[in-house]
Amino acid sequence: MRILLTNDDGINAPGLKVLEEIARQFSDDIWVCAPSEEQSGAGHSLTLTRPVRLHKHGPRRFAVSGTPTDSVMMALREVMPEAPDIILSGVNRGANLADDITYSGTVSAAIEGALAGVRSIAFSQVYAREGMGDEVPFGAASAWGAKVLEKLIDAPMADRTLINVNFPAILADDVKGIRVVRQGFHDYARGTIVEGRDPRGYRYFWFGLDQIEHTLDHGTDLEAIEEGYVAVTPLQLDLTHYSTIGILAERFA
Ligand code: MN
């Protein structure tokens, strides 16, 4: 089985190493193609206004000077002689739950894979405390990743769907199990914006992600994580809201 790995935290991200260890339990044919720099929050963006460079870091290991989507495209079109059987994205440093999904470079890399018709799974490790940066513990992902992947590797999946997996911010031994749940929603408040001045005196703003509140809803990814479970959520790329089609069509009739 040929596996492509990517990670929106960049080619040197600790979570990519964790994902590689998980993937190696299933195959030796592992390819890595990831952004050279961190691209968290890049969503499903594609680099169009500047050239993208491809750097070989080793056998089957490449960095792309672009977004996670660029990396997956590059892997599928330029790097890999044959298409992968599966694309794994992550393990992201931090949650990709609820409405994080469309901001997420991690999930978007899997979206790109699903668009290309390849089975794609996004993995994210939730962490409890803000400001941990490189110190995010990946213990739950390390211990539970293969258990999750084992079930998903040949699970039936419809076209243009992907799977979003989040590991809870607790010790691996405390994880209660795996739940298949729907996507939840945060209360709308996109974290904090920190204002400051740069060394030359110009004002800047910096987006933070702390203090995002949510009202727990039964059967959601947010609830599963809160209760100490690995959250597995199948996602679809068709964003159409079907019941509104008729309502709007009537208006325009
Ligand atoms: Mn990230």
Tell me what you see in this structure:
By secondary structure, the protein is α/β, with parallel strands linked by helices. It has one domain (2-188, 216-251): Stationary-phase Survival Protein Sure Homolog, Chain: A, CATH 3.40.1210.10. It has 6 helices and 11 strands. It has helices at residues 14-24, 68-79, 105-115, 139-152, 221-226, 242-252; strands spanning 2-6, 29-35, 54-58, 61-64, 86-93, 119-125, 161-167, 177-180, 193-197, 203-207, 229-236. The strands form 2 sheets. A 9-stranded mixed sheet has the order 3-4-2-1-5-6-7-11-8, with helices on both faces. A hairpin with a 2-residue loop joins strand 3 and strand 4 (61-64). Helix 1 crosses helix 4 and helix 2 (68-79) packs parallel to helix 3 (105-115). The mean pLDDT is 94.
Question: What features would you highlight for this structure?
Answer:
11 strands; alpha/beta; 253 residues; Stationary-phase Survival Protein Sure Homolog, Chain: A; 6 helices; 26% helix; nine-stranded mixed sheet; binds manganese (II) ion; globular; two-stranded antiparallel sheet
